[in-house]
Amino acid sequence: MVTRLALLGAGRIGKVHAKAIAEDKRAKLVAVADAFPEAANAIASAAGCAVRTIDEIEADKDIDAVVICTPTNTHADLIERFAKAGKAIFCEKPIDLDVARARACLETVRQTGAKVMLGFNRRFDPHFQAVRREIDAGTIGKVEMVTITSRDPGAPPAEYIKVSGGIFRDMTIHDFDMARFLLGEEIETVVATGSVLVDPKIGELGDYDSASLILTTKSGRQAVISNSRRASYGYDQRIEVHGSLGAVSAENQRPVSIEVATKDGYTRPPLHDFFMTRYTAAYAAEISAFIDSLEKGTAPSPSAEDGLIALALADAALKSAKENKVVRVEL
Amino acid sequence: MVTRLALLGAGRIGKVHAKAIAEDKRAKLVAVADAFPEAANAIASAAGCAVRTIDEIEADKDIDAVVICTPTNTHADLIERFAKAGKAIFCEKPIDLDVARARACLETVRQTGAKVMLGFNRRFDPHFQAVRREIDAGTIGKVEMVTITSRDPGAPPAEYIKVSGGIFRDMTIHDFDMARFLLGEEIETVVATGSVLVDPKIGELGDYDSASLILTTKSGRQAVISNSRRASYGYDQRIEVHGSLGAVSAENQRPVSIEVATKDGYTRPPLHDFFMTRYTAAYAAEISAFIDSLEKGTAPSPSAEDGLIALALADAALKSAKENKVVRVEL
Amino acid sequence: MVTRLALLGAGRIGKVHAKAIAEDKRAKLVAVADAFPEAANAIASAAGCAVRTIDEIEADKDIDAVVICTPTNTHADLIERFAKAGKAIFCEKPIDLDVARARACLETVRQTGAKVMLGFNRRFDPHFQAVRREIDAGTIGKVEMVTITSRDPGAPPAEYIKVSGGIFRDMTIHDFDMARFLLGEEIETVVATGSVLVDPKIGELGDYDSASLILTTKSGRQAVISNSRRASYGYDQRIEVHGSLGAVSAENQRPVSIEVATKDGYTRPPLHDFFMTRYTAAYAAEISAFIDSLEKGTAPSPSAEDGLIALALADAALKSAKENKVVRVEL
Amino acid sequence: MVTRLALLGAGRIGKVHAKAIAEDKRAKLVAVADAFPEAANAIASAAGCAVRTIDEIEADKDIDAVVICTPTNTHADLIERFAKAGKAIFCEKPIDLDVARARACLETVRQTGAKVMLGFNRRFDPHFQAVRREIDAGTIGKVEMVTITSRDPGAPPAEYIKVSGGIFRDMTIHDFDMARFLLGEEIETVVATGSVLVDPKIGELGDYDSASLILTTKSGRQAVISNSRRASYGYDQRIEVHGSLGAVSAENQRPVSIEVATKDGYTRPPLHDFFMTRYTAAYAAEISAFIDSLEKGTAPSPSAEDGLIALALADAALKSAKENKVVRVEL
C-alpha cells in the first residue's frame, strides 16, 4: 500500500519535501496547493501530480496525509481542519507563535485522534542521530550536560524578523527541541540572555540577535545553548553531550572536506552557508520517518506535543531575557 | 532537448547510473538491456522505461547515447558496435584488460568520430574536484609530488581475482587516472612493488594484494601510490598534492562524523566500507558530466584515450613488479 | 641584574615554580621556606639555595621578590606582610576565599605600592595566548561571545572540597579570569546553575559538582562557562571566541597525538589527566612574565585586582546558584 | 652513581645535548671541547663545567662517556679513538658519509667492545614512540606498509649541499632508520627516484631536492618515503603504519594548536619550521636513553650498526636513483 500525500505550500521547503516524497517508493504525491499557481504548477509538473485547492484536498477521500508548508500563521488552522478531515498531518514547526493558540490546536488534535508530526528536521540529521544512538547505547553513561551551538550565517531581513516571533521562537526553538532530544528528561527552568550585537535594527524591532541560555531538568541535568544571527564562517551547528562515562559530539559539516596548506597555515573551507544544504539528508529522513509511522501505524515523532513544549520553552526564554530572571517552565 | 539514453547492463553499477539519469532533467532513460530479464525489468519498472535487446537499441534512431555497464570482456566490442551505430557512449572502465585490444577499439572510435567517455568516477568526487580546483587556481604553485592512498575494506573472492586482470588493472587503474588528473603532465616511468600479505590465495593466482608504486613525469614530478586489498578501518581513499607554494589534500570520508570520548580516548567511526556509498556523489556527477558534454557538444572527459593510457600504465606496473625494474611507459 | 627570589611553600606547585626560576637566567632562587623541613630541603638541594624561615626571608634585604605557594588561608596575610617589607610578590590564586578579606588585603597593597601578580596560570598557556593575539590583531572583529569548557578529570576528595570555598571559588575562578582575559569588557551580570551529578558527598557538603554559567558585559557581550568535576576522557580545557568577523578557538591538548584506526574506528588518546602536565608551559611562562615585569619595572599582570574581581564573580555565581536568580556583580 | 659526560663540539646540537644532560639528575657534564673557544666557553659557563681539549678528555679517567657533536668528517675518527680509550660514546649521525669508512669504524668498535649509540633522534619523539608502542602491543596486527613523509621547510645553502653527502645520506637517512624502526624486518631492496624541482643549483651540484622511495623486506613488507627540500607550510614529519588489523599514524606538530574561522575558512597555524623545535622532546629523551643504558649496563640503541645500515640504505638509494633501477641492499 502506497501512502498518498498532498502538499500544502509550494515554497522553498515545500519543494524539498516534494522531492523527498518522490524518492520514497512507499509514498506518492497526488496533489499540491498554493496561493501562487506558478509555484504549485512547478512542483506539480516535476512530481507528476495535480494542482488542487485546499478545499479539494480536504474533501478528497483518496488522500491519506498532508504535508503543511504554508506560512506559520496558517499552521494551527490547517492542523485543526485536516485533523477533523481524518488526514494524517506533517506540519512544519511551529504550530503557532502563540502558545495558547498552539495549546488549543493540540486539544483539537487530541479529540480527533489525528496523527500529527512536527517538522523538527534536525532530529533526523544522520550525525545527530548517531549522537543519540551513542547515548541510547550507554556509551557515555548518564547524560549530565548538553551543549548546543547554533549560529546562522547571516541575519534575516527586518521584514522577516518582524513576523518571526523573535529569536527564541524562530531560531532557538530548534535548539530547545534538540536539548530535549538529548537530555532524556523534561526541562524545568530556563534562563536566557539576549543581546543586540549584530544589527541595531534587530534591536529596534524589540528582538535580540545573540543569545545564551541555560536549561535545567529535575535531576539537575544542564543544557547550554549559544545562538547568533551571524557567523562569518558558515552555518555553525554543533552538539555535544557530556555524561558520567564520557562524551559524544557532532562536528560541523562543510560542502567539501579538503585542506590547503601554505605558508599561512592549514585551511579547510567554510561550513555550509545555508540550512537546506546543511540538512539535506535530515529533510529526506524526516519525511521518510513520517511515511514510516503511517505505514506501521505507530505514533509519529516528534509529535504536536513536542512542538507545544518547544514553544513554551521559547516563551519562558523570552520572559527570562526580558525580566532578567530564571523562569520555571509552565507546560 | 532531452538526451535519450539506453542502459546496457542492469547490475549494481547499472542501477546507480539509472538513478543518476532519472534525477537529471536534461536526460531520459528510454531502454535497458540485460542478459537477465529480472535485472532489466527491475530497472525498467523503477525508471519507467522499456526493456530491449542490444540489437534493438543499436537500431533505434531515437536513442542518442548508451551507458555500458556490462562485463569487462564485452566493453571493447560494444564500444565499437555503438560507435559505428552513431551513438554517444559512456563506458565503465576498463575498455579491455588487453591493451592491444583497447588500442584497436580506440582506432575504431577515432574512425567513427564517436564520442566516448570512460567511467573513472573518482574524478567527479566533490572533494577530489575541489583539490583539482585549488591546483588550477595556483594556490599550491607548481605541482611537484602527488600521494595517493587507496585501500579496499576487504579482498574480493578468488573468482573475481581470476578475471580481474590483477591488482594493477583492476584497482590501481583508478589511481593511475587520478595521478594523471592531478600531475598535469604525462607519466614516463613506473616502478611497482607487489607483495602478498593479505591472502595467500591471491598469490597462488599470480596476483598481488599489496602494492607500492612510484610514477615520474618528464620534468621530474613524482606520484606515489599505496594499495592494499584490505583495510580494517574502511575504504581508505586519500589524495595529497605537494607543490612549490603549498599542498592540498582530501581526507577520508565516513558515513557520520561524530566523536565519542571515553577513558579509552576519542573515537570517530570507521570510514565508508563500500565504494558505492563512498562515491555516491561522484557517480551522479559523472553521468551529469556526460549528459552535459552531449548537450553542449563538447568532448567528453575522461576520454577513451584516458582509458587506454591508464591501461598502459597498469601493464607497465605489472612488468615492473614481475621483473623488478623501472619501466618506461609505451603509449 | 639578576632578580633574587624566595619561595614560600615547597609543595607541588612550589616545585613547579622553583624549576621555572632555575631555567630563567634573569632570576635566582636564593631561599625557600616551608613548615615541613623535608619539603624545603628537597627544593633547596635541587635548586642550590638556602632553607630559611619566613621571618628571615622578610628581613633579608637581598631578596627582591617572593613567590607565595602556601595554603590559601595564609595568602592575604603573607601578601600584606611582604608588601610592607617592600618585596615584589607573586601569589598563587586566590588572595583569600573571603572577598572582604581580599579587598582589605588589596587596600594594604595599594598603600604600600607593592607589585603583586596573581597566579592565573592559564593566561600564559601558549594556545590561549595565541587566541588572545588573534583577538588583539582584529582577525575575528569585535568580540561577541566567549565559550569556556573546563572539566576536571576527577573530583577531589571530600577533605579538599570542605576547604575549597566551593566549585565557583575553587574551579570556576580560573574561568572567570579567562572570560575577562578574552571578553575585553568588565562583567556586569552572572547567572549560575549548580547541580550535584557526579558525587552525592559533594552535595552533602553544600557544594556543586556540575555548573553552567552565563556572564554578560555592559555592551551585551556574553560568556558561557561549563564546569564539571569529572571527565572520563581527561582534563577538558577549551576556549572559543566568536566575533563579528569570525571565531578563534583553542583545542584540547593530549600527551601524544597519534591516531589508531581499527574496525572499531579512529581513536586518539585521552587528554592530559592532570593540570600540571596540561599547563607545564603556562607555569614556566607565568614566572617568566613576573620576572619580566620586575626587570622592566612594568605593572605585573594579572594583578591583585584581577584576583579580587575573579573572587567577586565567584561570590556572585554562588549567590546566583543558591537563590536561583541573575546577580549583578558588585565590585 | 652519576654518569660523567664530556661534550665534543659546542655548536647548535651540542647546546641541545648540554641542556638535556643538565636536566637529567643521573648525569653530569664535566667538560666541553670545541675548536672555537667562545662556543665551548658559552656551554661551560651555562653548565658549570670545564673547557678541555679532546686530548685531555680522552685521558681523563673520571669521564665515563662522550657525546660527539663535531662535524661529520670527524665522527669515525673520534668514535675509534674514544672506543679505544674505554669511553661510552653517543655520536650524532652519520658515522661517516663513506660506508667503507663506517664499516671499518664499526670493526674497531666491535674489537674494543665499546658502547656506541647513534643519534637517530626521531626514534625518541614521543609521538613516534607511541606509534611503535601500538605496533608492539599488536593493536594493528602484523605490519604491512609503512608511509613516511619527511619534508624540510626550506633547502639548505649550496655550501651545505656540497658536503652533505646528498639528499639520501643527509635527509633520507633519518627516514631509513625510521622505516627500520617501524617495519620490524630488515630491508632487502630499495628503489629511489630523485628530481630537481626546488632549486636548479642543487641539481648543478649533482644532488636531488625531491625524492620518492620504496623499500621492501624479505616477507614483502613495504615502506614508502616521500622527501622534499621545501615545504612552505613547515617541517612536515608524518609516519603511518598499516597492518593486518588496522593502522596507526602520527600527525604533524605545530607550535600552537588554535584554529581561526573566518569567511575564508578554518585555519590552523603552519607547522614547526625548524627541526630543533619540532624534536625538542626527542633530543632530551634521546640523551636520557643513553644515560639509562649506561646506568643499567644495557646495549645502547640505536646502535652503531643501525648507523651503518642506514648509510648502506642511502648508498643503495643513490645507486637506484642514478642508474634508474631497483637495488638489492648489501650489508
Number of helices of chain A: 12
Rounded radius of gyration of chain A (Å): 20 Å
> If strands are numbered along the chain, what order do they take across the biggest sheet of chain A?
12-11-7-10-9-8-15
Q: How big a fraction of the residues of chain A is strand?
A: 25-35%
CATH fold-type name of the largest domain in chain A: Dihydrodipicolinate Reductase, domain 2
- As an assembly, this protein is homotetramer
**Major sheet of chain A:** 7 strands, mixed
Q: Which two chains have the most extensive interface, and how many residues on each? A: A-C, 39 and 38 residues
What structural category characterises the helix and strand content of chain A? Answer: alpha/beta
H and E string of chain A = EHEHEHEHEHEHEHHEHEEEEEEHHHE
Averaged pLDDT of chain A? 97
**What helical percentage do the residues of chain A reach?**
40-55%
CATH hierarchy class name of the largest domain in chain A: Alpha Beta
Distance between the termini of chain A: 39 Å
Could you say what the CATH architecture of the largest domain in chain A is?
2-Layer Sandwich
| Structural shape of chain A | globular
Give the count of structural domains of chain A.
Answer: 2
Which residues of chain A form runs of ≥5 with pLDDT under 50? none
CATH homology superfamily name of the largest domain in chain A: Dihydrodipicolinate Reductase, domain 2
GO molecular function, one term (chains A, B, C, D): nucleotide binding
Keywords (chains A, B, C, D): Oxidoreductase
Domain Gfo/Idh/MocA-like oxidoreductase C-terminal (chains A, B, C, D): 133-328
Protein name (chains A, B, C, D): Inositol 2-dehydrogenase
